[in-house]
Amino acid sequence: MLLNIKDLHVAINGKEILKGFNLQVNKGEIHAIMGPNGTGKSTLAAAITGREGYEITKGEIIYKGQVINDWTPDKRANEGVFLSFQYPVEIPGVSMTNFMRTALNAKREYLGQPQLKAGAFLKLMEEKKKLVEITAKLTNRSVNEGFSGGEKKKNEIFQMAMLEPTLAILDETDSGLDIDALKVVAKGVNELKSDENAFVVITHYQRLLDYIVPDFVHVMYGGRIVKSGGKGLALELEDQGYEWVKEQFGEE
Amino acid sequence: MEDKLSQNKVLEEVTGSDYKYGFVSDIENDAAPKGLNEDIIRLISKKKEEPEWLLEFRLKAFRHWLKLEEPDWALIDYPPIDYQDIIYYSAPKKKETLASLDEVDPELLDTFNKLGIPLEEQKVLAGVAVDAVIDSVSVKTTFKDTLSKHGIIFSSFSEAVKDYPELVKKYLASVVPYTDNYFAALNSAVFSDGSFVYIPKGVRCPIELSTYFRINAANTGQFERTLIVADDDAYVSYLEGCTAPMRDENQLHAAIVEIVVMDNAEVKYSTVQNWYPGDKEGKGGIYNFVTKRAACRGVNSKVSWTQVETGSAITWKYPSCVLMGDNSVGEFYSVAVTNNYQQADTGTKMVHLGKNTKSTIISKGISAGKSNNSYRGLVRVSKKAEGARNFSQCDSLLLGDQCGAHTFPYIQAANDSAIVEHEATTSKISEEQLFYCQQRGIETEKAIGLIVNGYAKEVLNKLPMEFAVEARKLLEITLEGSVG
Ligand SMILES: Nc1ncnc2c1ncn2[C@@H]1O[C@H](COP(=O)(O)OP(=O)(O)OP(=O)(O)O)[C@@H](O)[C@H]1O
Ligand SMILES: [Mg+2]
Predict the structure, then answer these.
(1) φ/ψ of residue B360, rounded to 5
(2) How far apart are the first and last CA of chain A?
(3) Other C-beta atoms lying within 10 Å of the C-beta of residue B391
(4) Which of A221, B202, B328, B395 is deepest in the core (most CB within 10 A)?
(5) Percentage of residues of chain B with pLDDT beyond 70
(6) pLDDT tens readout for residues B463-474
(7) Which range has the worst mean pLDDT, B2-6, B70-74, B234-238, B372-376?
(8) What is the pTM of this model?
(9) What is the largest distance, in Å, between two alpha-carbon atoms of chain B?
(10) Does A160 reach chain B within 8 Å, measured CB to CB?
(11) Residues of B in contact with A142 (CB under 8 A)
């Protein structure tokens, strides 16, 4: 099992957001997580990636057989955990090229591999840019600065392609994308997908799941999963909304 | 809230950096006794075999200095300096005249190697002419011959006094008179060496000129003086670097840099200042009181000051431009980093006298630890300066919540046509940016280095290539341990 989250409780500033969250993800699987606004989906992503301020008060995150509750975010990243941010951050003055090279070499250093030479790195960049159909020159563009909403999301997938994670979490990567961009993102995911990695896709829309076909769909509500099913569940949700969830499990 | 948490953690962690230039070299010294009086000044002048007029200049400066009070308007705090407890002259002991580099004191060469300043072939190939000033005295100037073919003079100040007395006499103190301020008066009285540059009419200096300053001896003050003259249509890019050993006591550095720029001439002056900043508890470190000024005397003349200030316990420094010539241009690009207990009060003065004069100020202050970092700047437009323009951008970046950042912009515009723009921002390294980097596998300290370098990019880009690389590394080292 690649990821095993057991009875996870997470609090932000003392306020409990995740309340007994469980999830098992095997290599080769795609899991979709859906659920109303404010239910804790991004909090889950933050907890898995080790963001500061997200205090695990109970439970375990087990990744590749190890409890990673105490791992630093960069260690998790270098061990193959990747997050496509719901709101990618701008870093003024830091070029995408420099950023990616630093990231890639950090991972290589962590894994005891030699640093990537400039030539090889640039070649890799070009290759991955093509994959997500980024035409802009990234050399002289600062990380996410001046990118449109859609470009930022594509840029996340570009970084994912560069870093080739084992576990990728996509937090509403489809929001704000036009249909072409959506297809590009899906293409990126599908090309990267293998028997050796897994994806957790957080989304509000069934539309994305037409292109990235999930093995499992989970409905999250009140800080935990309240229902799991196959791809059909997403269609149901699209149809019926979350009223029935609220009725069954009460207002948050 | 979250923000604060991680800031503190990062800060605690980063306060662990080591000053890598802190070694002391065992070089034989020829030093004057401690203390300051007219006899000491006569001794310095005699050691340097100076002409009478220069001794007179020193004595006048000294007598003036005695009448002055140490300034206290800057936002810096330090115990009183005992000016009688300082050695005002210290020089590596000379062997007989050296025929080649082989004869230079091996310890000295080693020092330069540790500093990364090979005086030998490598540097020659790299195309940098180096004047190395150690404890006030210029040790060796490479590349002189190449330069002299172009009629360029690049020598130690002492040599210039001997070889080109008229030039030195003409320009010395013409930009910074000894009456200018307390530390300028002190320097004028006791300066022991420095660099002199003269670029003749119409000559573009083909290589970058550079001086490395190093304080080595204990209890010694360093008082160097740099004078750069760019005649009509001349161009030169000049680099200055500095380091000092780690010592528990504070050491005084009071320098003067004067630049004269004639018609259509341009001077770029870049500094990477990395004097020993003191330890994590604020013990030791250099007191850096420097007066730097450029006089743009000619029409269309231009000066840019670029500084990366990472060192010193105290920095008091305002590289300025006096824009006399019509259409002259003054620029000031600064990155000042303070960590632990460092204090910096730095900025610039842009004085617009000529018509259509233009000035640009970009200042990036970065404070960490318990440090204090102030930008202090003056933009003055005189009555006659028709069409003067200034743009100032002063940004402060805070790492943690125990440091201080302050901005003191003064604007005096006496001409209605003047356009003076000032923008200022204060920000913190955001937890979001840090996490974004970490999520991509970049550990905290590296992430801070990356973000800070991005923040200072506008200024770093103004530095010559090889200096920029060094400066980037320095920024990262200086902030090591500033964040957890
Ligand atoms: N830094 C914070 N401080 C306090 N409360 C927070 C913080 N971050 C999130 N929350 C709260 O935690 C809850 C879950 O937020 P989260 O962002 O995980 O929701 P989400 O399921 O991703 O929602 P959306 O679908 O809108 O993205 C919300 O009530 C939110 O207000
Ligand atoms: Mg969310």
Answers:
(1) -130, 135
(2) 31
(3) 15
(4) B328
(5) 77
(6) 877 677 777 777
(7) B2-6
(8) 0.80
(9) 68
(10) no
(11) 454
